[in-house]
Amino acid sequence: MLPLVLIGGAASWALITPINHALTGLAPDNPSVVISLNSSGAYLGQALGAILGGLALTSGAGAREICLIAAAIVAVAVLVELTNARRPALTTPR
């Protein structure tokens, strides 16, 4: 399990720079705004994860149930991403 956690942590941190680069390309006049909104969204996700995990623990869920909840959340995120990937790319006038 520890190797998966390490790989997941490294992968998530490795994505920050390319995501910020793409966001600044979409809003070149306001790079600090889009990067701060991206960071705020990440922190909101962390807070919601902690809330859901806490609620699961207080309701008596064990490690297996928490992993299943996390897998379901990841599946929803993948579905959202696949749906968005089919949309045409956003372009900005230059």
How would you describe this structure to a colleague?
α2 crosses α3. The protein is 80% helix and 0% strand. The chain has helices at residues 2-14, 16-26, 31-58, 63-85. It contains 4 helices and no strands. The model has no long low-confidence stretch (mean pLDDT 86). With 94 residues, it is mainly alpha-helical. The chain starts with a helix and ends in a 9-residue tail after the last helix.
Topology, pairings included?
Elements lengths: L1 H13 L1 H11 L4 H28 L4 H23 L9
Helix pairs in contact: 2-3
Which key features would you list for this structure?
elongated, mainly alpha, 94 residues
Mean pLDDT: 86
User: What count of helical segments does DSSP give?
Assistant: 4
Q: Which band does the percent of strand residues land in?
A: under 5%
Number of strands: 0
Rg, rounded, reads 17 Å
Unreliable stretches, pLDDT < 50, 5 or more residues? none
Shape: elongated
Describe the structure concisely.
The protein is mainly α and 94 residues long. The protein has helices at 2-14, 16-26, 31-58, 63-85. The longest helix is centred in the middle third of the chain and has 28 residues, at 31-58.
